[in-house]
Amino acid sequence: MKLGGIVTAMVTPFGEDGRVDLVEAARIACWLIDRGNDGLVLGGTTGEGPTLNVDERMALFRAVKGAVGEGAAVIGNCGTNDTHTSTALVDESAAEGVDAILAVVPYYNKPTQEGMLAHFGAIADATQLPVIVYNIPGRTGANMLPATLLELVRRHPNIRGVKESSGDLAQFADILRERPKDFVFFCGDDHLFLPSLALGADGVVGVATHFCSPEFRKMVDAMHAGRIAEAAAIHFELVPLFKALFAVSNPIPVKWAMRELGFHVGDARLPMGPMPEALKRQLGPLLERYKEGAAV
Q1: Which secondary structure element, helix H or strand E, spans residue 237, and what is its range?
Q2: For the chain, what are the domain ranges?
Q3: Is 163 a catalytic residue?
Q4: What is the pLDDT along the chain (296 residues), one digit of tens a residue?
Q5: Considering only the top CATH level, what class is 6-236?
Q6: 229 in helix, strand or coil?
Q7: Is 181 a catalytic site residue?
Q8: Alpha-carbon gap, residue 275 to 249, rounded angstroms
Q9: Marked catalytic residue, from 134, 181, 218, 243
Q10: Containing H/E element for 254?
């Protein structure tokens, strides 16, 4: 299955009892696909993966894949800061039907580049599924260098892509210049999607795509058709949404926004804090255009 170009890092809904609401997860997944998303990342940063236990994670993968079927790519995050745990999650996730594996650079440990090679090599060897490396040094405290990523791809053919969230366009360019054919580059920062497209990126794994996937699709189409000014105009219009969604730690704002649209997602699990009142006043008006056809 192709992983697509517009992919949402989906929120994980929690019920009033604090448990994962699998029915609501399936409903959100179908709504996102209906709005033009090609795929979904489950249990990632936005999906509060570090707070999900193994049973919750597998049930989430199973419920969402059962809901969307072959209509969208489901990418399950199996990355942790422990190699043994990560490889075990890969095996279980494959049994639940995910289409690809996302694995984050190990957080907290601050591994060396050689450690990253061994860690991701073990993950790749544990599955025949495509593996997407997730590089987000602002969260993990460790940056996978382009040379390390490219060496991983050389050693392990099923490492098929990267979600690059370093925020460093020079690093984007280093990867895109040297990547092999059919290696997929996802921009992991909504506000950098347009410049990443100019460098040759294939798509985005976004947060704002919970709402604006149709606009992102139009931006991609405009860029590919050479209508640069049109693509830039779409980007400029979305900048206030990008800023509001990342004014405090993700996923606090996007979960609040999804509740405003009528989805029963609950609050972000601790240790995340509450949504600031001032940010509610900033983000609320930006959501009005997205309420039509939502769950309200």
Answers
A1: helix 228-245
A2: 6-236
A3: yes
A4: 689 999 999 999 999 999 999 999 999 999 999 999 999 999 999 999 999 999 999 999 999 999 999 999 999 999 999 999 999 999 999 999 999 999 999 999 999 999 999 999 999 999 999 999 999 999 999 999 999 999 999 999 999 999 999 999 999 999 999 999 999 999 999 999 999 999 999 999 999 999 999 999 999 999 999 999 999 999 999 999 999 999 999 999 999 999 999 999 999 999 999 999 999 999 999 999 998 767 64
A5: alpha beta
A6: helix
A7: no
A8: 10
A9: 134
A10: helix 252-260
At 251, list the tokens: 């996923």
Q: Nearest-CA neighbor of 261 among 200, 217, 227, 210?
A: 210
How many Cβ atoms are within 10 Å of 263's Cβ, its own excluded?
A: 22
The residue type found at 40 is L
The length of the chain is 296
- The owner of tokens 């800023």 is 243
The 3-class secondary structure across 79-136, one letter per residue, is: CCCCHHHHHHHHHHHHHCCCCEEEEECCCCCCCCHHHHHHHHHHHHHCCCCCEEEEEC
The one catalytic residue in 163, 243, 280, 290 is: 163
